[in-house]
Structures are given as structure tokens and as C-alpha cells.
Amino acid sequence: MNSLTNTTAGVSMPARPMTKEERKVIFASSLGTVFEWYDFYLYGSLAAIIASHFFAGVNDTTAFIFALMAFAAGFAVRPFGALVFGRLGDMIGRKYTFLITILIMGLSTAIVGLLPSYATIGISAPIILIILRLLQGLALGGEYGGAATYVAEHAPHGKRGLYTSFIQTTATMGLFLSLLVIWTCRNSLGTDAFKEWGWRIPFLISLVMLAVSVYIRMQLNESPAFKKMKEEGKHSKAPLTESFLRWPNLRVVLLSLFGGTAGQAVVWYTGQFYALFFLTKTLGVEADRADLLIAISLAIATPGFILFGALSDKIGRKKIIMAGCFIAAISYFPIFKALTHYANPALEAAVANAPVKVIADPAKCTFQFDPIGKASFKQSCDIIKSTLAKKGIPYSNAAAPAGTVASVSIGNIVLSSFEGEALAKDAFKRQADVFNKSLGEALKGAGYPAKSDLSQMNTPMVIVLLTILVLLVTMVYGPIAAWLVELFPTKIRYTSMSLPYHIGNGWFGGFLPTVAFAMVAATGDIYYGLWYPIGFAIMTFVVGTLFAPETKDRDIYAND
Length: 560
Prior knowledge:
Blueprint: E1 5-8, E2 11-14, H1 20-45, H2 47-54, H3 60-74, H4 78-92, H5 94-114, H6 118-121, H7 124-154, H8 160-189, H9 191-198, H10 200-218, H11 224-231, H12 239-244, H13 247-282, H14 287-301, H15 303-315, H16 317-343, H17 345-353, E3 356-360, H18 380-391, E4 396-399, E5 407-410, E6 413-416, H19 425-445, H20 459-477, H21 480-487, H22 493-509, H23 512-523, H24 531-547
């Protein structure tokens, strides 16, 4: 098919400008998806405050279980939502399915804002919160595939990359909006009032966005590709079976995951979430300042989604996505090292003048994978490494004889850790406090800053670097919705594209901050965690370059 034609109901037509109906489709789908991402990010951004209201009154074991379930709901459950709602979308239609997802997400979020705390209703509070989080994760798993499929199936041939790129801006805009609302509420109410009750306001605001989104979506018609397929009686009666139990399509699903969404996901999370984590946890930039820096970079770079989506209509989806993965893989180390140089030069100087070394029995050092922040590391080596990692202090490792209590050297000062496994909880806390105080004083004396000094920060350069990271996000993410839609036939498109997208973004991307932190804690190298996204970006570049097809000229009305 010529790339300058539009295929509607099997009829070839000249390319044309965007119609009023198509603008409404894009606006409604994008607005709803912004709203869903806004809801999803609120919980992550306010997790510590929410935990203090809902998990504080339970015992440690129960709190651990609840926190694990909340974490799982946020990321692990998304692929299951893709299966549930993808199946519905391929059987009953795109429009009604993502109406359902937005209602579930919106109502679940609003209820969080109204939910009484543990102090008011006891154990029911965390149980209800977990149920709401599960519903949010399931709804988000169904929203993206529906919105992307719906927009792509309305788009003229030759403009699917452009049209779907508006959907691709929504995750970033949702993050931007959530940060902006939280920042406004916190600064308007004051920190104490915000922690006490003001955190509920961002959740309640979502009711307004829900009403607007549902109203607009109710005015839309079903996707023309789905209507055509339904009229011809070619819709799938078993989309899960056809998508994942028949090798020709399963092969494409696996290829889209390992040759597309896995790399896209880690680049996306690195450019936004891990960059924010690195600024606050490693470089000690105050949270409000870091949020503002990220928000500015998002505002500058967000048009890149539209640019690369439109460009993919001209030169192809694959070239841009693969280029984004490759550039990310070779540039992450210099970019993050430059962030240290410009955001916290005192830390860079301290590392050069008074290097830190952990001397420990390697057999007594644990890989500190702690996805929900509830694990307790009580061996002498782990006590040192977890403390240094949380302070963002780089260190090297040296082996000590078996059975030796671990110690840490800071320049010429040496401090011994302690073994805490046999200590009672209170005794462990007292000894840990003493050790942390001694370690903090030694680090301060060696010139290690407790936090980034804003007077020394080169803010314009930090913004430039963060903007580059977000531009890499736009390269891999801008064209990928069109690519995923075009990979699969209409009758199983919603189901087939949703699962690899949410496995890639929910699992490969969602676990990135946790795994990267554990890698940093294990090695002492504050940049070592970057090997996680770099590894998956390289994998996607190789698999995608060698095996992924270019899809921009495909007829998405074909149902074979």
C-alpha cells in the first residue's frame, strides 16, 4: 500500500487533514489516559505519607504483607489487567472497554482520598486500600491498549505515528500533573497540614477529571476497524487463545516484548523515575527542588513525543526506537556522571579526596533487593552498605578474612560495624543509631555533604541533562504505540499488544529503581545501577534490529 493513502472499510482514499471527529477521538483518549496515569503516580509519589496513615498501626509482619501487596498491585498486576480488558476489547469493542477502565481507575482513586485511616477504622483501612490499588493496577493494564488501538484505528494511513503520539505524551503529562498538584498543595498548605490531611486533595481532584473524561468518551463512536470486522463476522471468540497459544502470533508477542517494549520501558523509567531517584537519594537534592527540575525538563521535552511519532510516519517506527535504545545505552554513564558534577560538586570532590572503602567478608554481604522498603539487613557488612547506599555515598570493596566484623574506612578514619542478627529489635536500633551517628560525623568531617548545596548547583546544566534524558524517552516511546498496533491483526490487536506493553513497562521498567539500588548497594558504585537499563536497551536494540519488522505501511484493516 502506498503511504499516501488512507484505508477505510477497505476503500483506498487520498490522505486528508484531521477531521473534527478524529480530533475529538485523540483528545478524549489522551485526556482519559493522562487522568489514569495521574491517578497511578499519585500513590507512588505519596506512598510514604499514605503508609503512615494506613499501615502504621499494624505489626511489622502484617505491614510487610500489605506493603508487598500494594507494590504488586502497582506493577505486577498490570499485565493481568491487559489480559482481562484486552479480551473484552477484542470481543465487545474498544470504546466500551476503556470506558470501564477509566471508571474503575477514577472511582478507586477518589475513594483513596476519602478512605478513613487505620486510626479510625482499624485493619479495614489497609485491606480496602489494597483492594483499591489492585483495581487501579488492573484498570491501567486495560487503558493503554484500548486508547492506543482506538486512536490508531481512527487514524488515516500515513499518520498513525502522529495520531498515536498524543497518547504517548500522556504518561509523562500524568507524571507532570501529579508532581505539579502535589507541589502546589504541599506549598499552599504547609508540610505538616499536607501530611495530616492535605494529601487527600490530589486524589479528590481526580473526580473532576473523571467526570470530564467520561462525558467526552461517551460522545465517541466505536473504532471503524472494529465495526468493519464485527459486521463481517470476523471478530475473535477466543482472543487469549489466538494471541498466546498459537505460535505465529505468540512469536510476534515475544518479539514485541524483547525487541521493543523491554528497552522502551527501561529508557522511559530511567529518563524520568530513576533520574528523580538519583537526584534525591544519591545526590541529596531536596525533593521539592528535584520535582521542579524534572517538571521543567518534562515541559521542555514533551513535544518530542509528537515529533518522533510524526517522523516515524516518514522514516519508520523501528529506526527511531532502535536509535533511542542505542543512544541511551552509550550515553547514560556520561550523563549521570555529569549530573553529579553539576548537581552536587561537593560530593564529587569528597570522593576524590577521601574515598570510602568497605572491608568485609564477601560471604556475609547480601544482595539488597528490597522492592517495598521493608527488609531488614542485620549483618555487619549489610549495615554499612545499606547506610552508605541510602546516603548516596560511593565506596569500593575490600575482602576481609572469614568471620571478620565488617568495617568502613573514610580517608584515614576506620569505623567498625556490628553484628545485629542476634540482637532484639530495641537493642539493634540503639546500636544502629550509635553507628549511624559515628558514620555521619566521619563522612561530614571528610567533606561529604548531607545534601546538595543549591548555591553550588549549576541549575541550567542540570535541566539540560534531564531534558536530554527525557528526549531519549520520547524517541523510544513516541512511535511505539503505532508499532504495536500495526504488529497485530484487528481481531486480537487489543489483547496482543497490551500484554507485552505492560510486561515491559510494569515488570522490566517498574522494577528498575529497586534493582538498580540493590546493584549500587552491592558494589558501592553509584552509577552501577545503570547497567540494568543499559543491558535491556542493548538487548532490545539487537533483537529489534535483527528480527523486528517495519510496520508503518501496513494495512491495519487487514484481519489475517
